[in-house]
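Figure 3 (text version): structure tokens given as input.
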């Protein structure tokens, strides 16, 4: 009988009640892959959207699905030709594959070693699991797609969330003047990450406050959440500026009418960038904020928290312990 492991699976799309903790076959690493014993898994808004079936037409999937794309853990076994890492190495990764099927809400995962980076030494497994998807999303959106440069103005909408928290820091590291849009209770937090000013989206229309600071608009506006906040973000960008979105493609017609560049980005795995983040984290240049840690058995509670859309920093599942 093949070895089994504990995992959170869904056998159909639906509400939080479709999440089940079950024993499923433990994977074996193929050529070029390593088997990772997962210590912690990040929880992201995309996870509940996959669970609810919102992405079924955009990404191929195969039931039963184990959710989760973020992990930190320990290399347990190496497949043929996988020699970049040693057994026992502590690693972290963004673990998205072409088909949504075997994710990180599990005790083990087999991944191509090209996805992996050594885990930052200065932070816990829980914090490390909160980095890959959100940090890669924010960095790729701002540094690569928007080409944010030193001295430019940058507005981050939803700045206290998982992606937003990293976006504020990356914009600062890139030398931009950062304005964070967040609820008043999170203003001290976003300023501690590097925002020069903070705007309260609950205390009125944030467009007015942004326009007072930047009468012509900002060079780059990043709106991770989509919806109403994205609709308002168009009015915060200067003519010829860039608006970046990650949760929905946005309205190209509206962008064209306003004379701005609309950029839609879907995050890609990139171990070189994870290496860079490790360096920044270990040097104290990049902070990781995990607001809540749940057990694998409490995945439904973690989804309940992430579905509010108002978490500060990251939510993480603690999976295993020991080395």
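Below: residues designed for each position.
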């Amino acid at each position: 009988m093949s070895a089994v492991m504990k995992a959170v699976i869904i056998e159909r799309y639906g509400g939080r009640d479709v999440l089940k903790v079950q024993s499923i076959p433990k994977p074996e690493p193929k050529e070029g892959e390593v088997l990772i014993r997962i210590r912690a898994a990040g929880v992201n808004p995309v996870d509940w959207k996959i669970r609810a079936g919102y992405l079924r037409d955009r990404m191929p999937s195969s039931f039963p699905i184990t959710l989760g794309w973020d992990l930190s853990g320990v290399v347990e076994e190496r497949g043929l030709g996988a020699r970049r890492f040693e057994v026992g190495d502590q690693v972290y990764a963004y673990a998205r594959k072409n088909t949504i099927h075997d994710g990180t809400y599990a005790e083990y995962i087999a991944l191509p070693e090209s996805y992996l980076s050594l885990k930052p030494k200065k932070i816990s497994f829980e914090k490390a699991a909160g980095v890959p998807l959100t940090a890669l999303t924010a960095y790729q959106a701002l540094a690569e797609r928007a080409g944010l440069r030193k001295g430019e103005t940058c507005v981050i909408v939803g700045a206290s969330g998982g992606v937003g928290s990293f976006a504020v820091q990356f914009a600062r590291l890139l030398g931009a003047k950062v304005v964070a849009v967040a609820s008043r209770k999170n203003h001290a937090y976003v300023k501690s990450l590097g925002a020069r000013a903070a705007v309260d989206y609950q205390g009125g229309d944030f467009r007015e406050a942004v326009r007072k600071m930047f009468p012509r608009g900002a060079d780059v506006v990043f709106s991770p959440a989509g919806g109403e906040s994205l609709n308002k973000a168009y009015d915060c960008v200067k003519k010829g500026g860039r608006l970046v979105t990650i949760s929905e493609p946005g309205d190209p017609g509206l962008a064209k009418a306003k004379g701005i560049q609309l950029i839609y980005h879907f995050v890609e795995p990139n171990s070189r960038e994870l290496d860079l983040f490790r360096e920044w984290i270990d040097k104290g240049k990049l902070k990781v904020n995990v607001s809540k840690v749940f057990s694998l058995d409490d995945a439904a509670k973690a989804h309940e928290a992430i579905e509010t859309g108002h978490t500060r920093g990251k939510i993480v599942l603690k999976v295993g312990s020991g080395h």
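Residues 75 and 89 are 5 Å apart (CA to CA).
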